[in-house]
Structure to design on (942 residues):
């Protein structure tokens, strides 16, 4: 297959001079710019709140300690909140994912933890429903449309206005002519992709490191996939209207209908009644203890913290040690359903990843969210870190509570500091392979169809 | 206008659509998707409500079977309320998946409504949920585009339009006839489907049809009929303005993207930038600030509570709180509750009004984008809108306040100040308290909330016919 350079050059000129390219590329760039602004704005606002937290915490603890003067730690410890934060990774501006839905700061008391983990952030639900116009949206939702607009009439328009017959008779190889035309489009699509991505890197200040390249790779593969789908439809050799209609239908199916059905399937096959159950159990587990003898409650506590056995707990008098042991047993009793909840959420994640193998659009979205650490898994990691922090705090204050230390004689800010989760670079190989396989598959199918519909065609008269 | 011509053209359009295979193929796809959406929606909602009812029953039983307790312990034990989905939510999920499903009501604290489905979902939900409303709002317009884009432009290309215009028909007659024919097809295909699914789904979920639900159903059907009419007019107008069918299709698909993706998203983020809402920490800080300014019940030197003490002592004519006939501790607690609840409500109302101003942007933009109009009004009528959720939040807070207040009254009168924490009262005291029952918004409230969107829909119909008249008057569009 030899591609005539002169024809190729003409094709580039021809294509670039068309209105579609200009309008398409410009509107996509504009959306890109807007999405960068939006991503920056959403994450900056979150970061501002997070930066505000240490001050709030310091001031809060000072107030608590001031109010508690003269009382024992055991009674003051009921009041303070301990803040935790989930700072954004540098890539979250690119793909906000579930970060607007899930809280990025959580405050916990020393009381039973389970009821405190699922406090929601204050947000306008309509804003959540409508979703974010972030960079990942531009690539996942809008780029396919650009690709469709660039390619749907490559051959059909020339067939419709008669140019194709000239091309057929003048070019040595029809295959080369088709390949040339498609390659020109592919080159321009890839250039646009790289251009928008580079602008994203600059505008969102993405670090030039492995995750950024992961993002780029996912985006490139994804764009390639849509290009091959377009080529496949073109290869059917139908009219421009047919191509456009079919491609838009494919887009709607892959980007709207399929995920909609898949989402219902996931929710239906893995329901989470544990969410309500955990909260109910913890509340009952703790409160029932008030009406029961103290010894069994204390024994449960001693089983984990034997070092406090030496402090006497009176059976007929309230004591702070007993109070916190009751709170602790609330958590013990809900631990089972809480674990099950996390497990089920992970199952949901796994199932959606499995579903994503059949849909490159979902695969791309999940991969981008994974790289940005904005998916459900990273939120669960955050919740687990909050749980760990809660334990550290309890363990810091327990000695003072059991020793009956006065509020003013301890350092209220001396508990082990909360360490936010570090960025976790997760492999996105699975998603990328899925996209690649679909792209390769449609390319092969396209080649077969081209041979049948364009190259080996017998009836030249009507071609 | 020749009514006879219009009917002929409309009939002809109807016949020609049913003659070709593509519309029927597309319709069967949509039919399958709608049935699937209705079925899964019904299943999901009934399963979900069942789950919530069970949880509620469990919490209620636990509440009733509490032993004799100190009333303030009961106030801390608190109550949990589980939000159930509205009977029509299977049709339009609206905001349901993005708002919380359970709230813990306790003394001293206003908790958020937690455990939304979106919080337990990975990103897939964000592509949009498959519901009947989504099919009607997003996909039926696309169907109309595909069956109608060449309705006039095709006549131009094959020269039939000129022949028609040479006869008695005016261009407006043709446009209206085409619109009537297309609309009739769309209505015949989708309105019965809509009506039947609404009634069937509702019957399956609630087991009965209430008058109000029926009214909502009829209103929804009527409004969707208007919506389809608007889209059809748009398609006919664009088709009439286009030189070729191909151009018409391109323009219409572009408009679809603009209406369904670009404008809604931009509207919401524009609203967010115009009216910035406080985050949770800022919101709580502001409340804490106001509460400590008004009176801090934990601060022994607080002036507000000092004067409360002085006044109470004076009222009962005693010199120390231990001589009061009522429990002073309970009095202080209720005063603290009054202060914090008032301040919370004030801040909460402000927050809600900020959200409402954010959402108003999309209501105003309904005049540019009919999808926003139908989206909003459909959520309103299905009880899955912003106001329904806000009503739930406000009602639970009211319930929390009243429950706590009653427990404080028991504390005030039945528990002696001396040795306060050692005493208990009979469980009967709180067993008599009423259970929480959500009062859904009435149809009138829903329609008022959707007033702007409703007006926008009607304005679109008028503007649509105006546009057809305008297009028909231009000679350029006849060629």
């Amino acid at each position: 297959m030899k591609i005539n350079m002169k024809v190729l050059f003409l094709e580039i000129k021809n294509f670039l001079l068309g209105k579609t390219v200009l309008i398409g590329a410009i509107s996509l760039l504009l959306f890109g710019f807007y999405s960068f602004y939006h991503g920056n704005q959403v994450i900056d606002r979150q970061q501002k709140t997070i930066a505000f937290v240490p001050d709030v915490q310091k001031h809060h603890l000072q107030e608590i300690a001031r109010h508690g003067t003269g009382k024992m730690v055991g009674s003051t410890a009921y009041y303070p909140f301990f803040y935790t934060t989930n700072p954004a990774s540098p890539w979250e501006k690119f793909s906000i994912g579930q970060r607007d839905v899930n809280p990025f700061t959580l405050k916990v008391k020393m009381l039973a933890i389970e009821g405190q983990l699922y406090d929601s952030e204050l947000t306008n639900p309509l804003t959540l429903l409508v979703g974010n116009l972030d960079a990942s949206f531009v690539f996942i939702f809008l780029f396919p449309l650009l690709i469709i607009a660039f390619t749907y009439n490559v051959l059909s328009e020339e067939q419709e206005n008669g140019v194709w017959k000239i091309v057929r008779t003048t070019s040595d190889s029809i295959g080369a002519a088709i390949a040339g035309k498609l390659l020109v489009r592919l080159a321009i699509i890839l250039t646009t992709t790289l251009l928008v991505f580079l602008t994203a890197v600059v505008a969102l200040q993405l670090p030039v490191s492995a995750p950024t390249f992961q993002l780029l790779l996912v985006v490139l593969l994804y764009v390639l996939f849509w290009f091959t789908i377009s080529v496949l439809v073109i290869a059917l050799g139908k009219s421009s209207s047919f191509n456009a209609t079919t491609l838009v239908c494919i887009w709607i199916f892959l980007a709207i209908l399929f995920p909609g059905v898949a989402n219902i399937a996931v929710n239906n096959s893995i329901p989470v009644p544990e969410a309500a159950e955990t909260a109910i159990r913890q509340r009952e587990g703790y409160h029932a203890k008030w009406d029961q003898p103290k010894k069994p409650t204390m024994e449960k506590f001693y089983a984990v913290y034997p070092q406090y056995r030496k402090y006497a707990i009176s059976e007929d008098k309230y004591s702070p040690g007993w109070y916190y042991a009751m709170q602790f047993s609330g958590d013990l009793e809900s631990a089972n359903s809480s674990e099950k909840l996390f497990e089920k959420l992970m199952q949901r994640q796994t199932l959606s990843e499995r579903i994503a193998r059949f849909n490159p659009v979902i695969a791309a979205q999940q991969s981008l969210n994974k790289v940005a650490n904005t998916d459900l898994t990273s939120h669960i990691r955050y919740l687990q870190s909050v749980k760990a922090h809660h334990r550290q705090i309890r363990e810091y204050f327990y000695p003072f509570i059991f020793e009956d230390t006065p509020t003013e004689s301890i350092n209220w800010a001396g508990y082990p500091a909360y360490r936010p989760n570090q960025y976790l670079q997760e492999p996105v190989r699975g998603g990328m392979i899925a996209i690649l396989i679909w792209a390769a598959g449609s390319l092969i199918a396209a080649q077969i169809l081209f041979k049948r519909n364009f190259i080996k065609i017998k009836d030249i008269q009507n071609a | 206008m020749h009514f006879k011509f219009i009917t002929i053209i409309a009939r002809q359009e109807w016949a020609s659509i049913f003659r070709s295979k593509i519309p029927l193929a597309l319709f069967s796809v949509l039919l399958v998707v709608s049935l699937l959406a209705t079925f899964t929606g019904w299943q999901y909602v009934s399963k979900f409500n069942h789950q919530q009812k069970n949880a509620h029953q469990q919490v209620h039983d636990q509440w009733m079977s509490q032993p004799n307790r100190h009333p303030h312990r009961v106030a801390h034990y608190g109550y949990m309320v589980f939000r159930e989905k509205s009977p029509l939510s299977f049709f339009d999920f609206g905001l349901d998946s993005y708002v919380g499903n359970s709230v813990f009501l306790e003394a001293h604290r206003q908790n958020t409504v937690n455990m939304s489905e979106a919080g337990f979902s990975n990103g897939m939900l964000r592509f949009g949920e498959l519901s009947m409303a989504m099919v009607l709002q997003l996909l039926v317009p696309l169907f109309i585009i595909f069956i109608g884009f060449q309705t006039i432009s095709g006549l131009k290309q094959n020269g039939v339009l000129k022949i028609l215009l040479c006869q008695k028909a005016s261009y407006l007659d043709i446009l209206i006839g085409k619109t009537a024919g297309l609309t009739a097809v769309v209505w015949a295909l989708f309105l019965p489907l809509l009506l039947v699914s609404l009634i069937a789904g509702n019957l399956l979920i609630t087991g009965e049809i209430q008058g109000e639900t029926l009214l909502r159903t009829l209103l929804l059907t009527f409004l969707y009929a208007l919506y389809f009419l608007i889209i059809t007019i748009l398609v006919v107008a664009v088709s009439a303005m286009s030189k070729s069918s191909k151009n018409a299709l391109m323009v219409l698909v572009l408009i679809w993207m603009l209406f369904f993706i670009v404008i809604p998203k931009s509207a919401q983020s524009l609203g967010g930038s115009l009216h910035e809402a406080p985050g949770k920490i800022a919101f709580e800080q502001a409340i804490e600030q106001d509460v400590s300014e008004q009176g801090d019940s934990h601060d022994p030197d607080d002036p507000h509570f000092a004067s409360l003490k002085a006044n109470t002592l004076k009222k009962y004519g005693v010199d120390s709180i231990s001589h009061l006939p009522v429990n002073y501790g309970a009095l202080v607690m209720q005063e603290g509750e009054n202060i914090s609840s008032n301040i919370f409500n004030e801040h909460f109302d402000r927050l809600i009004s900020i959200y409402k101003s954010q959402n108003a942007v999309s209501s105003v933009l309904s005049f540019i984008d009919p999808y926003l109009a139908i989206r909003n009004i459909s959520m309103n009528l299905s009880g899955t809108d912003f106001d329904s959720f806000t009503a739930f939040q406000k009602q639970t807070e009211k319930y929390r306040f009243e429950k706590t207040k009653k427990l404080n009254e028991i504390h005030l009168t039945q528990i002696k100040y001396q040795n306060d924490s050692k005493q208990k009262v009979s469980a009967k005291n709180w067993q008599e308290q009423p259970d929480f029952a959500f009062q859904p918004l009435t149809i009138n409230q829903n329609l008022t909330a959707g007033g702007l969107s409703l007006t926008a829909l009607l304005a679109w119909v008028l503007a649509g016919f105006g546009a057809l008249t305008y297009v028909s008057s231009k000679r350029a569009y006849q060629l």
Q: What stands out?
A: The radius of gyration of chain B is 30 Å. Strands of chain B lie at 79-82, 102-105. Residues 109 and 238 of chain B are 57 Å apart (CA to CA). The first strand of chain B starts at residue 79 and ends at 82.
